[in-house]
Amino acid sequence: MEQRSVEAIKQEFTDIYNDKIKREGADKLLDYLTNRCDFFTAPASTRFHSSYEGGLAQHSLNVYECLVQYLARERVKEVYGLACSEETAAIVALLHDMCKIDTYIRDFRNVKNEQTGQWEKVPVYRAEDKLPYGHGEKSVYMISGFMRLTREEAMAIRWHMGFSGSEDANLVGRALEAYPLAFALATADMEATYFLEG
Length: 198
Fold this sequence. Notes:
Number of strands: 2
Shape: globular
Helix content: 40-55%
Order of helices and strands: HHHHHEEHHHH
Strand content: 5-15%
Number of helices: 9
Distance between the termini: 9 Å
Strand order of the largest sheet: 1-2
């Protein structure tokens, strides 16, 4: 996937956010994302997916696109009976990884150059979580400081890691079965991570 400028990513994110999310407190949350944290400049991971400046916001947009396409599938609507509002889809997809805000720090590490055999200092990101509150639950906690989430939205964000997290598999299975939007978000997150960003 082509890496875009931080400004282009920020503009697309803001346009979708303002168009879809109208809930009380949404304006304050967007102000926080835009002016009081590193959401638009942070990577999505230290070295796995979207590990570049602006990667977190780009990943959020990728998950949004994947979720909207998943929810539009005929089978999902007619057989699974899964539907949600455009606002809910935007909230859970665009904000599912708020837990990564202000977590990644620029650093350097030594790597051996394969051509020359010499050691070189290369820039990397390292994680330093100042609010170790888990993953999905931390995002729910952070969002809730600005606006209310429905139970379905909170559960989707909380369980968006699906079976790839460190949770008990039985608990994950029960959550995904009880809250199909959580399954849909986890699927969209994996699709974005492994296929769009891999």
